[in-house]
Amino acid sequence: MWDWFVLFLEIMLINIVLSGDNAVVIALASRNLPVSQRKQAIWWGAFGAIGLRVVLTIIAVYILDIPYIQSAGSLLLLWIAIKLLIDDDGHADVREASTLGKAIWTIIVADFVMSLDNVLAIAAKAEGEIGVIILGIGLSIPIIIWGSNLVVNLLKKFPILVYIGAGILGYTSGEMFLADTKVSEAILHGVPHYIVPVVTTVLVIGAGLLKQFVFKPKPKHS
């Protein structure tokens, strides 16, 4: 029961940390609508986004069981984790919608396009626990959508949350690589397997710290 709860919390954190841009998109897509329609757009957009993301994640769970795809996914997830810490560019270039239908469509499509990293990360972490996937996504998306401004401000105020989320992704990428036994056994001759997730986690956190303290952009002088 405790393992299930910890897994649930990890999925929630991964989903929230990776969905900062989604929150901005939702705010932008609906901000030009009347208040009553704005609420409807957020509600129906959230409903569509949750359903689509759950379906995609469950599909990804089964796809990741195919040999070689899991090891390739582990490398992609490692890149996603590193990019989360080193990428300063936002992905919220979305036009405000003028009608309720357009706003709902914008929210669903934007969530689909921007959530492929979430889908891969959660599918890898959940290890086939479909119930945890549905619960984790079902609860975290409303938090992101209805508290979009809160989520963005929280991640900016407490950068440690982003580092923790990225670290979980790094560790998960290492576990994914080991789970693809055909590839991992061929490459890791005599190397203790427990080292791999530790190395991938250190690599991710190290990349973030390098970007933060070594390659930190210099402030522009006015």
Features:
222 residues; mainly alpha; 11 helices; 79% helix; TerC family protein; Integral_membrane_TerC; Integral_membrane_YjbE
Q: Helical region count?
A: 11
The overall pLDDT, averaged over residues, is 76
Cα separation of the termini = 56 Å
Which geometry do the CA atoms define? globular
Order of helices and strands: HHHHHHHHHHH
Strand residue content:
under 5%
Note the main sheet: none
- Poorly predicted ranges: none
Radius of gyration: 18 Å
Helix content: over 70%
State the secondary-structure class.
mainly alpha
Q: How many β-strand stretches?
A: 0
Question: What is this entry, summarized?
Answer:
With 222 residues, this protein is mostly helical.
What does this structure look like?
- The chain is mostly helical.
- It has helices spanning 2-17, 20-30, 35-63, 69-86, 100-114, 116-126, 130-146, 148-157, 159-179, 181-187, 195-214.
- Helix 1 packs across helix 9 and helix 8 (148-157) packs across helix 9 (159-179).
- It is globular, with a radius of gyration of 18 Å.
- The model has no long low-confidence stretch (mean pLDDT 76).
